[in-house]
C-alpha cells in the first residue's frame, strides 16, 4: 500500500505543478498559436496524470474495481499520450519556425495524424483482442502483444521532434535559435528516457514525472526569455537586439555577408488615426507574424525596437542578394492581411547596411540603414513625410 500511495502522491504533485505552470503561461509572449499549442501539451499531460491516478486507485481497490472502467481509463491514457506527443512535435516546429513541416496541407496533416488514428484503433480494439493491453478477470492490467506499437506511435512523434531540434542546432547560424533548439531537444529526450526506463523496469513510475520535468524545463527557459521579448508582438526586444549584436560583432572579420536591416510600417499613423490604437496594435502583430515567418525560414534574427520600427540581422547565404528577404516580407505581409481580412493593406519600407569590419557599432549601422529607409519611406508615402 505504501507503493500505491507514493505513486499517487507523485502523480498528484505533478498534476498540481502543471496546473501552476498553466496559470503562469497567461502572460507569455510568442505567437498565439505557439502559446495555445504549449497549453494543449500541458492540458493533455494533466489528463494523462488524472487517468493514471484513477487507474491506480481502481487497480488497488481504493475505488471499486470495474473491468469497463479499467479499459476506459487505459484507452484514455494511451490515446492522450499519443496526442500529447503530436502536440509536442507541433509546438517545437512552431517555436523553431519549421515552416515546411507545418503547412496547412490536407495530405500532410493526414500523414501526421495517422499515428493518433492507429493508436485509437489499437487501444479500442484491445477490449476484445488484448493487442495493446488486457484487463484480467480479477481486474489486473497486463501488456498486450502489440504494446510496442503503441510505444512506437508516441515515440515516433517525440523522435521526430528531437530530429527537428537537432537539425536546426547543426544548421542554424542564429545563436538564439540554436539555444532554443538545444533546450527543446533536451526536454523531449526526458520522456523518451523515462519510457525506456519503464520498459526495462515495469511498474517504475517515471514517465509522467519525466513529462512534467520536460515541461518545466521549457517553462523555465520561456520565463528567462521574457525579459528579452516584446510583450505585444512576441519578437525579440531592443535589449535582445543589443545582446545579439554584441554576440555576432566578433564574427564579422571572418564573415562579411552580415546585413543589418531597419524596417518601418508605411502609413502606420493613418491606421491609428482612422481605426484607433487597438487596430494599430493589431497591425503591429500582423507585421510581426510576417517578419517571424520569413526570418524563421531564412534563419535571420528579427526584433521590434519600438513603435512600428523593426530590425533584422541576416547572414546572407552565398549567391543571395540583400533584397531577397525584403521581397519575402512584403509577400508574406500581403498574405497575412488577406488571411486576417484587414480593411487596409499593410506594406513596409526597408533600409539596410552591411558590416564592414568588427569595429562597426550598432548605431553606425543603424544610421546607414536609416538613410536608405528614409528614402524608401518617401517613395512609399508619395513624397509625404511620415
Short summary:
By secondary structure, this protein is an alpha+beta fold. The chain is built from 12 helices and 6 strands. The protein has helices spanning 2-24, 32-59, 67-95, 106-129, 147-171, 175-200, 207-226, 238-249, 268-275, 277-298, 323-340, 362-380, and strands at residues 133-135, 141-143, 258-265, 301-306, 309-315, 348-354.
Q: Which terms would index this structure?
A:
alpha+beta, two-stranded antiparallel ribbon, 386 residues, Rhopdopsin 7-helix transmembrane proteins, Alpha-Beta Plaits, elongated, four-stranded antiparallel beta sheet, single chain, 6 strands
Notes on the protein architecture:
With 386 residues, the protein is an alpha+beta fold. The protein folds into 2 domains: 2-226, Rhopdopsin 7-helix transmembrane proteins (Up-down Bundle), CATH 1.20.1070; 238-380, Alpha-Beta Plaits (2-Layer Sandwich), CATH 3.30.70. It has 12 helices and 6 strands. A 4-stranded antiparallel beta sheet has the order 4-5-3-6, with helices on both faces. A two-stranded antiparallel sheet has the order 1-2. A hairpin with a 5-residue loop joins strand 1 and strand 2. Helix 6 (175-200) packs antiparallel against helix 7 (207-226), helix 9 packs antiparallel against helix 10 (277-298) and helix 10 (277-298) crosses helix 11. The radius of gyration is 25 Å and the shape is elongated. The protein starts with a helix and ends in a 6-residue tail after the last helix.
Amino acid at each position: 500500500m505504501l507503493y500505491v500511495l507514493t505513486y499517487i502522491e507523485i502523480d498528484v504533485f505533478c498534476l498540481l505543478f502543471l496546473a501552476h505552470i498553466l496559470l503562469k503561461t497567461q502572460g507569455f509572449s510568442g505567437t498565439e498559436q505557439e502559446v495555445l499549442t504549449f497549453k494543449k501539451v500541458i492540458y493533455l499531460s494533466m489528463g494523462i496524470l488524472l487517468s493514471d491516478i484513477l487507474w491506480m486507485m481502481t487497480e488497488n481497490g481504493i475505488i471499486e474495481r470495474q473491468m469497463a472502467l479499467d479499459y476506459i481509463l487505459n484507452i484514455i491514457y494511451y490515446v492522450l499520450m499519443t496526442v500529447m506527443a503530436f502536440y509536442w512535435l507541433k509546438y517545437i516546429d512552431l517555436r523553431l519556425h519549421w515552416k515546411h513541416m507545418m503547412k496547412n496541407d490536407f495530405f500532410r496533416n493526414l500523414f501526421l495524424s495517422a499515428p493518433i488514428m492507429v493508436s485509437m484503433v489499437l487501444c479500442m480494439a484491445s477490449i476484445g483482442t488484448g493487442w495493446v493491453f488486457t484487463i484480467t478477470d480479477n481486474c489486473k492490467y497486463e501488456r498486450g502483444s502489440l504494446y510496442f506499437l503503441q510505444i512506437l506511435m508516441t515515440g515516433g512523434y517525440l523522435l521526430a521532434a528531437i530530429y527537428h531540434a537537432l537539425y536546426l542546432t547543426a544548421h542554424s547560424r542564429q545563436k538564439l535559435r540554436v539555444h532554443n533548439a538545444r533546450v527543446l531537444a533536451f526536454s523531449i529526450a526526458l520522456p523518451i528516457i523515462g519510457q525506456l526506463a519503464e520498459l526495462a523496469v515495469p511498474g517504475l513510475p517515471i514517465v509522467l514525472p519525466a513529462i512534467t520535468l520536460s515541461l518545466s524545463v521549457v517553462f523555465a527557459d520561456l520565463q528567462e526569455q521574457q525579459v528579452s521579448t516584446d510583450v505585444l508582438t512576441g519578437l525579440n526586444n531592443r535589449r535582445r537586439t543589443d545582446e545579439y549584436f554584441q554576440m555576432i560583432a566578433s564574427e564579422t572579420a571572418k564573415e562579411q555577408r552580415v546585413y543589418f536591416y531597419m524596417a518601418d510600417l508605411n502609413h502606420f499613423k493613418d491606421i491609428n488615426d482612422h481605426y484607433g490604437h487597438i487596430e494599430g496594435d493589431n497591425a503591429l502583430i500582423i507585421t510581426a507574424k510576417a517578419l517571424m515567418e520569413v526570418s524563421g525560414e531564412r534563419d535571420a534574427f528579427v526584433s521590434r525596437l519600438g513603435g512600428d520600427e523593426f530590425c533584422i540581422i541576416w547572414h546572407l547565404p552565398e549567391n543571395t542578394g540583400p533584397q531577397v528577404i525584403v521581397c519575402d516580407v512584403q509577400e508574406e505581409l500581403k498574405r497575412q492581411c488577406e488571411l486576417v481580412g484587414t480593411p487596409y493593406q499593410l506594406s513596409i519600407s526597408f533600409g539596410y547596411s552591411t558590416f564592414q569590419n568588427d569595429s562597426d557599432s550598432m548605431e553606425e549601422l543603424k544610421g546607414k540603414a536609416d538613410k536608405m529607409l528614409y528614402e524608401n519611406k518617401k517613395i512609399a508615402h508619395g513624397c509625404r513625410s511620415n
